[in-house]
Design goal:
Blueprint: E1 3-6, E2 10-16, E3 31-37, H1 39-49, E4 54-57, E5 59-61, H2 64-75, E6 84-86, E7 92-97
Length: 104
């Protein structure tokens, strides 16, 4: 194994929205992109994509997001035998993606 990546994994939900919502405004997402994330998990995937070998040691819940993320890591070639599965939910990261990036 070239690299052992230890740390955080989460599941990313990126909602593509037309504009930044005003206070108490409800807006609708035009698109939703789901993907595994988290710095340590992303590093493990990057190592594999660059031709190295990586193992991930971190936590994912026994829920649909955790199961999906574990499957994505395995599909990328990350060794997951050190992955900890538990009853607490998989951490989620939610982002609003706007056409003008950081502009309101």
């Amino acid at each position: 194994m070239d690299v052992l990546c230890v740390g955080h994994a989460c599941y990313d939900l990126a909602f593509f929205v037309p504009h930044h919502p005003a206070p108490d405004e409800k807006i609708f997402s035009k698109e939703l992109v789901l993907a595994g994330g988290g710095p340590a998990a992303n590093a493990a995937v990057a190592v594999c994509r660059l031709g190295g070998t990586a193992s991930f040691l971190g936590y994912l819940g026994k829920d649909p997001f955790g199961e999906r993320h574990a499957r994505e890591l395995e599909e990328e070639g990350v060794e997951t035998s050190l992955l900890v599965h538990g009853e607490a939910p998989t951490p989620l990261a939610v982002s609003l993606v706007k056409p003008l990036g950081g502009q309101p």
